[in-house]
Design brief:
By secondary structure, the chain is of the alpha+beta class. The chain has helices spanning about 5-10, 15-25, 30-45, 45-50, 55-70, 85-90, 105-115, 140-145, 150, 155-165, 175-185, 190-200, 200-215, 225-230, 245-255, 295-305, 335-345, 390-400, 410-420, 425-435; strands spanning about 75, 95, 100, 220, 235-240, 240-245, 270-280, 285-290, 315-320, 320-325, 345-350, 360-365, 375-380. The protein has a 7-stranded antiparallel β-sheet. It has a 3-stranded antiparallel β-sheet with strand order 1-3-2. Strands 4-6-5 form a 3-stranded antiparallel β-sheet, with no helix packed on it. It is rod-shaped.
């Protein structure tokens, strides 16, 4: 059934009065009205007016009708009450058997939506099968350069309302369409996105700005970007990837972040930066990043590994209490490091050796890290040799080892090498070893051997 036959079949005399009111034109017969509607469809003006009256939900229904009814003529529309504009324009007709339209009408509407950039033919949320290797990242390009409204349609109404609340927006309508338009307008306006940036940690703002200047649109879906995601600056388009739309990126480029006062600490932090300092030899230090949710037993192991120590029987002390790595007292496994650092950002580690080393541990800051395993990020000073005597003996040996021309250098060097001494701090090997024994997804409960 072609379109003319469709209209002649389903248009009835009682529709002429409504057509008179709608078009301010009197039609003598149904055939006159049919020819009029065909002319309206062909010149496209009426369809153009129609598509601009559709909500995003209605656009999705049109798209679905088009995709599900390829090859058909007459389409029965179960959701006709959700497509009232098409009813008002008399492109959906109520019959005793149900509401009907014609595929050519739906296709004309769909094609006009595309030409008016009111719908995207780009898939906005990709599956694992769409991106199987890093080389497939190019498939994200049409998403972050395409229709921004349909990108933000990836967000739920609840997420959009959360963004609106966080940005303190007071006028935003009642439906998802208006939520999307409100958020998009906010994030693509220089003055408003500056406010959004002020709600992010300093390091995040700096990285976003740097990436924008480099035209970087794609981000890994990792912890450090969750706050930007929660504010809509980044939008999830795949399980593993977020994107910044080109419109938002270009707005960010124009922002002078030196005028923005950001927050210092991310509420999405998932790690800590700690400083270890040998109490008796303060020139020997280690800066270490550890993940959250570690036990005191795991922290003891990290401290020992960072100094290349192997003896057992060490303990952590704070507030007059001692927590041991073995059965000498209260087991350090009972300590939750997150709670300990919150209550005691400074404490002492006691290493069991002839030297009785004490390490002063202090919390530098919370961080967002994508590494499950702890790692040493910087160091200073020599290796604190263990089990060679007292602290004075260690200082004497380190002094000689710093002078290769010293008469006793070779003797001292040979002895130090039988212990834990290294001429060059093997940071890569140490971090690899720590990663083997302590992993956020594989808690350390007992001593593991390589």
């Amino acid at each position: 059934m072609d379109l003319r036959a469709f209209f002649k079949t389903y248009y009835k005399d009682d529709m002429l009065y409504r057509a008179l009111i709608w078009y301010n034109t009197e039609f003598s017969t149904v055939d006159d009205f049919v020819e009029f509607k065909l002319q309206k469809l062909n010149n496209g003006e009426e369809i153009q007016t129609l598509v601009h009256s559709l909500s995003m939900a209605e656009v999705k229904l049109v798209e679905r009708l088009k995709m599900e009814n390829e090859g058909q003529d007459v389409i029965y529309v179960e959701e006709s009450e959700e497509l009232l504009p098409l009813k008002e324009f008399q492109y959906i007709i109520d019959t005793p058997e149900g509401s009907v339209t014609h595929f050519d009408i739906i296709k004309k509407i769909y094609d006009t939506l595309l030409s008016e950039d009111l719908i995207s033919d780009v898939k906005m949320m990709l599956d694992d099968s769409d991106i199987e290797t890093p080389s497939d990242i190019y498939k994200l390009t049409p998403i972050y350069t395409g229709n921004i409204l349909w990108l933000y349609d990836n967000l739920t109404s609840r997420h959009l309302r959360d963004i609106i609340r966080k940005l303190n927006i007071t006028h935003y309508g009642s439906y998802k369409d208006s939520f999307i338009e409100t958020v998009v307008n906010y994030l693509t306006t220089k003055e408003y996105i500056s406010h959004a940036l002020s709600l992010l940690p300093n390091e995040t703002v700096l990285q976003l700005k740097e990436n924008a200047e480099k035209n970087i649109h794609v981000y890994d879906n990792k912890t450090m970007w969750q706050e930007a995601k929660s504010l809509g600056i980044l939008v999830q388009v795949h399980r593993d990837y977020l994107v910044m739309h080109e419109g938002v990126l270009n707005t960010l480029k124009d922002v002078d972040i030196s005028n923005i006062t950001s927050i210092d600490v991310s509420k999405y932090f998932n790690g800590y930066e700690l400083l270890f300092v040998i109490d008796e030899i303060p020139s020997i230090t280690r800066n270490v990043i550890i993940p959250t949710r570690l036990s005191g037993r795991e922290l003891i192991e990290i401290i020992k590994e960072s100094f290349i120590w192997n003896n057992n029987g060490s303990y952590i002390s704070f507030n007059g209490q001692k927590f041991y790595e073995n059965g000498d007292g209260i087991d350090a496994s009972f300590i939750q490091v997150d709670a300990m650092l919150k209550a005691h950002p400074m404490f002492t580690f006691h290493y069991k050796s002839e030297e009785l080393y004490k390490v002063n541990v202090s919390l530098i800051k919370t961080v967002t890290t994508e590494h499950y395993a702890p790692r040493v990020i910087s160091h200073s000073g020599e290796t604190p040799i263990d089990n060679v005597g007292d602290i004075d003996k260690v200082k004497s040996m380190l002094e000689i080892l710093s002078r290769p021309d010293h008469i006793d250098y070779n003797v001292v060097y040979e002895r130090a090498r039988t212990r834990n001494y290294r001429e060059r701090y093997p940071i890569t090997a140490i971090n690899a070893h720590i990663a083997k024994i302590i992993h956020q997804e594989r808690p350390y409960y007992e001593k593991r051997k390589d």
